[in-house]
Amino acid sequence: MGGLFSALGSLWAWFVHIADPLCGPAGIFTWFAPSTILACGDAGWGDEIAIGLQVTVSVALVTLPIGLVIGFLVALGQQSEEKALRLAAGIYTTIFRGLPELLTLFIIYYGMQILIQSVLASAGYDGRVEINAFVAGVIALSVVFSAYCSEVLLSAFRAIPKGQYEAGDALGLHSGRTLQLIVLPQLIRIALPGLTNLWMVLLKDTSYVSIISLADILRQTGVAVRVTKQAFFFYVIACGLYLALAILSSILLRYIERWSKRSEVRR
Amino acid sequence: MSYAETLIAPQPAPRDVVKPLTPARLTGYILVALWAVLAAALILMVIKGWDTSYITRYGPRYLHGLWTTLSLVAISVVCGAVLSLPLAFARLSKSRLLNWLSFGYIYVFRGTPLLAQLFLIYYGLGQFRPQLESAGLWWFFRDAWFCGLFSMTINTAAYQAEILRGAIQSVPYGQLEAADSLGISKLVAFRKVVLPQALIVALRPYGNEIILLIKGSAVVAIITVYDLMGETRRAFSQTFDYQTYLWAAIFYLIIVEALRHLWAWIERRLTRHLKR
Q1: Looking at residue B34, what is its pLDDT?
Q2: Which residues are CB-contacts of A82 (< 8 A; sequence separation ≥ 6)?
Q3: Which listed residue, of A85, A120, A252, B138, carries a Cα 20 to 30 Å from B239's Cα?
C-alpha cells in the first residue's frame, strides 16, 4: 500500500513538473530566462516562484469546492421556512461578509491554535501546537467564499418561479428529487455569472495567505526581494502572474458559461 | 328555494396544532444553539481576561486606528471618484486608443490583489529613490500612509470607473434622443438627464465598493500603517491576548453594518419617486 502511494506521489510530481508553466519543459522561464535572475534551479528565483504559483493555485482550487458546498447549505438555510435555520444562516453571512478577509484569517489561524491547545491541555497534553498554514488559509478563505456564495445562490433561488417546485410536487417527486432534477440545473445557469465573479475575488484573496507565511506567489517573490533587493521587478512579476491567472480563468469560465447555456434558444 | 332552518351551534376555536419537530427545525435549533454557545464563550473570555490597564492602554490606540482606517477610506473613495471620471469617459469614448488604455488600466487593477499593488508601490518604487528624490516626490512614496492611500485610490478608481460606465450605459438611448429633440445641449443633457438616472443605478454598487474598500484597507497594516488592523496586530504582539482580534472584529462589524443600513436608508430615500 505504501509503495502504491509513493508511486502515485512520484507520478503526480512528474505530472506537475511537466505541466509547470514557468519551470517545466515548456515553461516560460526555462526558455526565455535561462541565465538570468529568473532561471530555474539554484542560479535564479524561477523555481521558487513556480512553487509559489502552485501553492496559490492549489489553495484556490481546494477552497472552491468546500466554499461552494458550504455556501449552498447556507443558502438552503437562508431560504428555508424554519425561522431558526434562517437566523443561524443570517448570522453566518452577516459576520463573514462584514469582517475583513485578513482579520478572518487571523481569527481562524490563532483561534484554532488556542482552541486545539486548550482541548489538548484538558486531555493532559502540554505542548505548543502549530496549525498548518495551508489548512488555516483554506478554512478562512472558504468561510469568506461561502458567505458571499450563499448570497449569490440565494438570489438565484429567488429567481426560480414557485411553479417549478409545484410542478415537482405535481409529478409526485420527493422534495430532494425536485431540488436535484428541477431546481439545481436552472440554479447553476442563473448563478454562474455571480460565481464567476466570486472565483476572481477568491484568486485575489489567496494573496492573504502569504501573511501567515504560506509560500504562495507573493511570499516567494517577497523572499526573492529581500535577497536580491530588486523589489520593483519581482513584484511586477507577481502582479503579472495574478493577471495571467485572471485572464486564463476568464477564458475558461467563458467556455463553461457557453456550455451551460447550450440548451437555451439562440436569438 | 332552500334556506338553512337551523344554525350550526357555535364551535370552539380549533386547537393549536403543535408543529412537529422536523429535521430542518432540529438542525436550525442546534445551529442557533452553537452560535449562542460561541457568543457565550467569547463573552466569558472577555470577562475572564478583563484588565482595566489594557483598556486604558490600548483603548485610545484602537480609536486612533479606527480614525486612520476611516480617514484612509474616505479620502481614497473621494480621490478615486475623481480619478474614475476620466477613466469612465475614456472607456465610453469612440476613440480606440483611449478605450484600450482605460480598459487596460481597469483590467490590471481589478485583476491583481490589492496586497500585491501595495507591495509594488511601497517596496517597488522605493528602489527608484534617487529618481523620485530628483523629481521631488520622495516625501510621498517614503511614507507608508501615503503609499497606502495612493494604492487604495488607484485601486478603487478602477472599480468605480467600471461602476460609472455601467450606470451611464444603463440609461436608455431614447433619453438622450429626447433631450436632442428638445434642443438641449449635450453637456446639459448629460448633467440633467443622464447623470441623475445613472447615479441611482450606481448607488448600490458604490455602497458595496465602499464596504469592500473598508475591508480591503486592513491590508495597509502589512506595510506598517497603524490603522485598526495595524493597532490590533501591535496589541496582539505585545499581549498575546486573543481578545485583541475580537475587539477589532467588533469594530469592523459595527462600521460595515452601520454603513450598510445607512446606505439602504439613502437608497430608499432617493428612489421614493420610483415606488408605486
Answers
A1: 94
A2: B22, B24, B25, B28
A3: A120
